[in-house]
Amino acid sequence: MTTLASRTLVLFTLAGLITAAPMAEAGQPQAKVKKFTLVSVQFGDTKMWLPSTIVVNRGDKVKLSLKNEIPGEKSEHGFALPGYGITEIVRHGDLKTVEFVADKPGVFDYFCQLHPAHIGGQLVVEPVK
């Protein structure tokens, strides 16, 4: 292959990579993927989701891995995040994954919809600055 042909091939390859790369809107930072593992646990008689607070930025892609670590073969616990239309049932030993885009700023409660006495937490979506 000639030097000119090699250079042309390199230029077209680079041009293809640049145009294929995701572009953020003008003035907007590119969304990041934020990953969290939330675990349903029990301390004494108290059952809760940990961590109790997760913080993301508006526009972030959020991936939640949900684990139920409360003892008992038939242990089922819910995970509801109504502000984003998410409702799941997590069985002991199973792993559920939930993905969404945090497209509205604010504070959104998450909790066990099956057992209202259990302690939930909050998703904080901060506005883009």
Describe this structure in words.
- The chain has one helix at 3-20; strands spanning 33-43, 46-50, 53-57, 61-68, 76-81, 86-91, 95-101, 106-110, 121-126.
- With 129 residues, it is mainly beta.
- The protein has one domain (31-126): Immunoglobulin-like (Sandwich), CATH 2.60.40.420.
- The strands form three sheets. The chain has a four-stranded mixed sheet with strand order 2-1-4-7, with no helix packed on it. Strands 3-9-8 form a three-stranded mixed sheet, with no helix packed on it. A two-stranded antiparallel ribbon has the order 5-6.
- The radius of gyration is 21 Å and the shape is elongated.
What does this entry show, briefly?
With 129 residues, this protein is mainly beta. 14% of the residues lie in helices and 46% in strands.
